[in-house]
Input
Amino acid sequence: MFRFATWNVGHAVQPRKPFAHQWNWFTDNVGADLVVLTEAKPDYSSCGDGWSFVYKDGGIGGRRRWGTSIGAYEHTLRDVTNGVGGRNGFAIEHHYPGYVTIADLVDDEDDSTLCTVVGIHAPLLDRDGNKLKWGGESVDVIMEDLAGLISSRRGEMLIIAGDLNIHPGHVPPSLYENFIDVIEATADLREPLPGCVNCGLGEGCGHLWTHRNGKTQNAAVQNIDYVFISEALGEVLTGAGGGDFTFPEIWEYSDHAPVVVDFSDDVE
Ligand SMILES: [Zn+2]
Output
């Protein structure tokens, strides 16, 4: 089994857990081989032997020292955030540097690319950098930025994951044209999520509570973290889970819950 996870570790609700506590919980309870961390500002050197990370040094910049990072356990990552040359390369210009990180998972035997991961934290900003209350505009901009990657060879084995800051009913149609939403693809394994905000699936809802906005009993039940995979990866998808459905204790560690995807070993 090969396990991928995405998790927003930058929680707003007090008391905050130190990253070291979050990371201990993560390695004990999730055990992923490949991870996207959003709103992350860890000391990566303390993540333990075998882990390596790709991220923008200094985070997003200014006072925002956090950013999106991609980590792999006992696998090699190649940072292709700013594109890569060559016949199968791609070009990209980022509207929101630091919010989007891209890495290849590398086959050490021949240096080939096993799959490519895009980690996204969709900012609460419009195209011009003005503040918004959701990620609906920035997700569209980021998908435009990713067009060259998606149409390149890497688009065949691609994971797009992270905190999109939008509810299920607002996910851009372009994502569904090319990719499988692993949460919706496995929705029939779960009961409808009570109170699922802006769902759109009705009785077919099997969303995950991935963001708890506040500690109160009536905190909104939001699915705003996602994992999309290309069709070729869909053929080796063996399971998915996350939210408080899989991790009932998660709200002690973050106001976001991980989304976890299992693939057969064929990914490697
Ligand atoms: Zn739902």
Observations:
- DSSP finds seven helices and 14 strands in the chain.
- The chain has one domain: 2-267.
- The CA atoms of residues 76 and 108 lie 7 Å apart.
- Residues 19-29 form the longest helix (11 residues).
